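Pipeline run #58 for the internal structure catalog. This entry was flagged by the ingest filter as a single-chain record with no existing model, so it goes straight to prediction. Upstream metadata was stripped on purpose; only the residue string is passed forward. Reviewer on rotation: M.T. Logging verbosity set to normal.
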Amino acid sequence: MRRVTGVGGILVLVWLAAGCSGGSAVRDRLVLLPHPPDRLLGEQLIEARYVVAGTLVKLEDADAYEPRAGWLMRALLSEERPPEAYEATIAVDSVLKGNGRPKRLYVMFFAPQGNLIPSPGTNAIWFAHRRQLWRLAQSTYYGTPYDVGLAFDSDDDIRPLGEWPRLRDIARRLEPPQEP
C-alpha cells in the first residue's frame, strides 16, 4: 500500500475531506423541511446534478444503449421487455442547480413498458443526474463500453413548471448559512 506524502498528497486529502463534508452538511439541513413531500423534493435536489426549467426540443431513440436485438425482444415478448433508450435535448430557460448556465442539456432516459414518454414541446422542470450509461448494443466478450453523462432516474425527475417557486424555496432553505 502506498503512503500519501508531500504537499500534493495532503492537498488531495483536504480536497476529499471537504468534498465529503459538503454533501453531509446539506443533508443535515433536510430537518429544516418539516413536510415529508418537501423533504422528498429536497433529497431530489441534493441528488441531482442539474435542475432546470426548459422545453424538450428533440427526442431520439438511442439504440446503442439498448441490448442487442432489443426491438426484436420487444416485439416477441409481451410482459418482460427491456426498456427503450432515448436521448432528450432540452432547451434551458432557467437553472436552479448546476454548473454554469447551459443553453441545452443532453439527457438519456430509459422507458420501461408503461412509462410516460414526454413529447417534444413539453415544458417542465427537469432533474438530471450524472450516471454511467452502458452501451449494451456494443457489448463484446471483453466488456461493455460506457459513457458518463446525464440521465433521468424515474418519472419523478420531470415535474410541472408550477412547482418552480416551491423548489426555489426548498433550495434556499437547504443552502448553508453565509458566514460574515
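catalog note: The first helix runs from residue 6 to 28.
catalog note: The chain has a mean pLDDT of 79.
status: ready for reviewer M.T.
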